[in-house]
Amino acid sequence: MTIDNKTQDCRQSLAAAFKALADEAVNAGWPEGEVALALAELAEEHVAEVGAKVIVEGFSQYQLHQASGRLKF
After folding, report:
1. Taking each helix axis from N to C terminus, what angle separates 32-70 and 5-27, rounded to the nearest 10 degrees?
2. Domain that holds residue 36
């Protein structure tokens, strides 16, 4: 599986901030494994939220398209 350039650029842009956040949590006393798990869970929740938003927006666009096809002027 390859990652396209745009996705790779985004990933590289976020990597330093992500590592800094993880390091900050570990330095605050949280075990590294718990930090990793918490960050993974937060990322998963974010993906689910974004996915749901895309589905809802796509469905709304579909409904608008369907409704416009039924309108007669």
Report:
1. 140
2. 5-70
